[in-house]
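On to our target:
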Amino acid sequence: MRIAVRYQSRSGNTRKVAEAIAHKSGVVARPMDPTEKFSPAVDLLFVGGGVYAGRPHKSLTDALSKLAADEVSGVAFFYTSVSPMDQTEGRLRAAVKDPAIAIGDSVFQCPGKFLFSKRDRPDSADLSKAEAFAKRTIDARRKMLDEIKWRE
């Protein structure tokens, strides 16, 4: 199974989470590039970003809107924000325009530091949770792909 981790981060919070996910996935996390073409195709793309004023960064949603199922067959989201009470998950899901791209059921939200709030976040416990999220997501995606192959 081919996996990639891409992120958008201004303060470094999301980069730390992306690197934890990438470590568990056995790949290298890279900043999201809206012009990137995934060749060969990626079975699972972990993609995340920071939340600013209650919204994911426009560069991230723009990049998600350009994904195509012939390059990325599955997506899993993660993000950092000061408040977990926002509509980020729905906005990330809505940004993926290709209906043939499978979007994972779970999303990882991690508290991130902002000004004088949550200055120690993400911490080692958060990064361990990010790694556990990566493992669960990879296992679920692998199971789904195995079931598809079995049916064929």
Remarks:
- Residues 65 and 96 are 5 Å apart (CA to CA).
